[in-house]
Design brief:
- This protein is of the alpha/beta class and 265 residues long.
- It is built from nine helices and eight strands.
- Strands 1-2-3-4-5-6-7-8 form an eight-stranded parallel sheet.
Length: 265
């Protein structure tokens, strides 16, 4: 049986892919990554993501949102622009949005304001949320808790947190996105243990390409650029950690992603 995977978070409109984007998409499909969801991080990137997704029906989809780094750029047109994008059939979730109190590229009150505004938009449109959180767990959960009964579905993208944080997200019914961070024997060691605590029906996979290239990839790409075809390596690594077959992990995570994002509907 052929492997079929879904990469729920890939930054395909990133400039590092400008020279070989079509080839990269072909490599991904040939490796078993049948669907890729392009991450929108601001209005311009969300538009580019939707346009690219429209050129590859049933293979590429996209999200539309404002990353916390970009929250300072928001204005009175932001929500109407996002609402318009989210009417497009290729656009399957609100995000990447959330809080990043690590780098604080946008002031925290501004991050809070636009995170909450995007949660409200997701509730209004009954769209899934694709979330980013870094060093802001308590405030992040506090804001989300206010909308618990209105939320559609939520995934915490690129989870690298601790056991307490994982439990809090799972208690809220959130899905967990795991990247190649888990393949890092230094920074990802705790994640190799925590992945065993994620219920299989809440697990999804992503590369976050071009970032987070799996550290144990062999051979490594010369420019260290991550790409969606490496999702198979991540999936196989997780299968080994969980004592499952690669086919089983691929089937489970693909089914989760298809249901979460309502793919093909």
């Amino acid at each position: 049986m052929a492997i079929k995977l879904v990469d729920i978070g890939v930054n395909l409109v990133h400039r590092s892919f400008d020279a070989d984007r079509a080839d990269l998409i072909s490599r991904a499909v040939n490796s078993g990554v049948s669907v890729m969801i392009i991450t929108g991080t601001n209005i311009a990137a969300s538009h580019k993501a939707q346009k690219l997704a429209s050129q590859y029906p049933s293979v590429l989809y996209s999200t539309a949102g404002i990353h916390p780094h970009n929250a300072r750029e928001c204005n009175e047109q932001t929500l109407s622009n996002l609402r318009s994008l989210l009417q497009k059939k290729e656009v399957v979730a609100v995000g990447e949005c959330g809080l990043d109190y690590n780098r604080d590229f946008s002031p925290r009150p501004v991050q809070d304001k636009w995170f909450e505004a995007q949660i409200q938009l997701a509730c209004e449109l009954k769209k899934p949320l694709f979330l980013h959180e870094r060093d802001a767990h308590q405030r992040f959960v506090e804001i989300l808790n206010s909308y618990q009964n209105q939320l559609d579905k939520v995934v915490v993208h690129c989870f690298t947190g601790n056991a307490h944080e994982l439990k809090a997200y799972l208690d809220l019914g959130f899905y967990i996105g795991i990247t190649g961070w888990i393949c890092d024997e230094r920074r990802g060691k705790h994640l190799q243990d925590l992945v065993k605590k994620i219920p299989l029906d809440k697990l999804m996979l992503e590369t976050d390409a071009p970032f987070l290239t799996p550290r144990d990839l062999n051979p490594k790409p010369k420019d260290n650029r991550n790409e969606p075809s490496f999702l198979l390596h991540i999936s196989n690594s997780i299968a080994k950690l969980l004592g499952k077959s690669p086919i089983e992990i691929a089937q489970i995570t693909t089914n989760n992603a298809e249901q979460f994002f309502n793919l093909g509907k």
